[in-house]
Amino acid sequence: MLKRVLGRRILSGLCLLAGAALMSPAIFAADEGADLAWKYHCTTCHGDTGKSNAQRYPNLAGQNSIYLVSRLKYFRDGVEPGNQMNAQAAPLSDETIELLADYFSRQSN
Length: 109
Ligand code: HEC
What we know:
Number of strands: 0
Shape: elongated
Bound molecules: heme C
């Protein structure tokens, strides 16, 4: 009898844990744009949330995303030789640019 009750308790405990584990990705959903900003080192110069770390780097937080996309494509295309951003933007795919622009535009400035 005791064994049965204990067994049930353990089983329901496990169910709760499993439920929590299943739900956690939704609760703690990672921000893909934030991850990419780290991965491509944008945060080194532009700050974790797009508030720049130094006067010579522009703030990106809260900037219009369409504008950010066009700037990143401009850099990626190397229109302006010698621009420091050209090398930063060179490896970015269109999708990555969209995600980064979306991320920085959502940050408060
Ligand atoms: C080594 C420092 C450095 C890194 C790393 C860097 N940037 Fe920049 N970024 C700059 C500088 C400097 C400028 C200003 C360029 C200019 O004057 O044309 C700039 C400009 C920009 C602009 C244009 C802002 C505007 O107002 O027109 C965008 C957008 C941008 N960076 C996004 C990014 C993203 C996204 C990444 C990561 C993939 C990144 N940057 C990585 C230094 C950096």
